Structure formats: C-alpha cells, structure tokens
Amino acid sequence: MEFCLVYVRYPLIADTLGLPPPRNYPVPFLVDFKHRCSPDILFYLSFTLCKNKRLTLNIVLEKFSQQDFADYFKLVSNAQVMAMITERAVPHDEARRDYDQLLKDNAESAELGHFRISDAQDGHFIGLGKLLPLADPPGSAELGYMLLPDYWGKGIASQVAAWLMDRAHHATALTHLIAIIDPANLASRKILINHHFTSQEFREFDGLPGEILARAL
C-alpha cells in the first residue's frame, strides 16, 4: 500500500483531487468519498491507494466541540488507554472539568488545540490528537495523541503524528515541538523517533515517570 497525504480546505477538495463538486456527495470514479464535513473546517485527509487503484479516505481530524464529550469520556475512562498517561481511568466529574478546559483551549487558537480523530469510512470515533502552545520555551507546542485500543497497531498513531506536525508547520509562530511520554511506552517512543524527535530528559510529572522528546520545525 502507498499513502498520499493531502492538506486542503474542504470546498477545494474537488478541485484538488479532480472530483465532481463535493456538495452533492457523489461516489465518483476511482474514489470512495464517504465522509461529510462542514465547509469551513481545515483538516488533513489521508488516503490509501489500494491494489485495485481505488482511493479510500482513512482518517479525519477536526476540533472537539461541545457535543463530543461522550467520545472524550469513552477515551479517558478506558483504563487501557490511560495506563501510560495517568495510570488510572478518569472519573466522569473530573473528565467533565477537563473537557471544559479542552473547549477553552480550542477557542483560543484557530490552528492549535485538541482534535477528534474519526474513521472517515464509518464516522466511528478513534481518539484524540493535541497540539497545544506552551509558554516556555516561546514558540513551542506540545504534541500528543490517544487512541482507543481497537485502533492500536494499525499505523494510525503515526498518521496522527504526521498530521499534527504538518499542522504545526502551518502555524507560523511555532519553531519547536515537544512530546511527553511514559518511558515504558516504547511504541509511542518509536513513532516520535521516526518523526525526528530526540530524547531530551527524564523527569516526573505529578509523581508519574515521563520522558521529554523534542524536535525543531
């Protein structure tokens, strides 16, 4: 399989890919186009070129909104997901407070924030990607992601990391990215190293072990 990454504003997708106007949501020749998005969303499309030469939309990322709390809670209340993040499932009340802060973060920047990852074929929720500006050092942002266990080991985390880095490249104020992982999370470490992050230091965060990795943009 071969991956082709396309970064477009939704109304231009038809021109970019040489398709009929998307407002009618056809299934045009050679392309399975099954995911609908509002016209003003800037997002990243990942296509897989299959053996039969058909292009299949893989994942879509767009900012979390008020109505997405149930998906968010499904993620952070999953003990497997949180094992190397908080080492515990997050209870409902705490998740609600965290989600309110997430929405505030999203409102502060058009380019950065917390992004809902969904399967473009069936719309099913996959996980969360984040790209959050940091006060120190200036010009830096934190990159991170969480996926539901059903989507582990399928290459999605690497695609999300690539999406977030591309988004960061388009945010003109950013010069560096950092990522914080559990040192035992070898899968995430491998993904970040493959995307040219390098280890900077090991330290505790709220009493939990952490490794900081960074890269320049």
Automatic annotation (TrEMBL):
InterPro entries: Acyl_CoA_acyltransferase (IPR016181), GNAT_dom (IPR000182), N-acetyltransferase (IPR051531)
CDD domains: NAT_SF
Entry keyword annotation includes ATP-binding: no
Protein origin, superkingdom: Bacteria
Molecular functions (GO terms): acyltransferase activity, transferring groups other than amino-acyl groups
Organism: Erwinia persicina
Keywords (A to Z) from UniProt: Transferase
Domain N-acetyltransferase: 59-197
PANTHER family named in the record: GNAT FAMILY, PUTATIVE (AFU_ORTHOLOGUE AFUA_3G00765)-RELATED-RELATED (PTHR43792), N-ACETYLTRANSFERASE DOMAIN-CONTAINING PROTEIN (PTHR43792:SF1)
Pfam families reported in the protein's UniProt record: Acetyltransf_3
Official protein name in the record: GNAT family N-acetyltransferase
Keyword hit for Transferase: yes
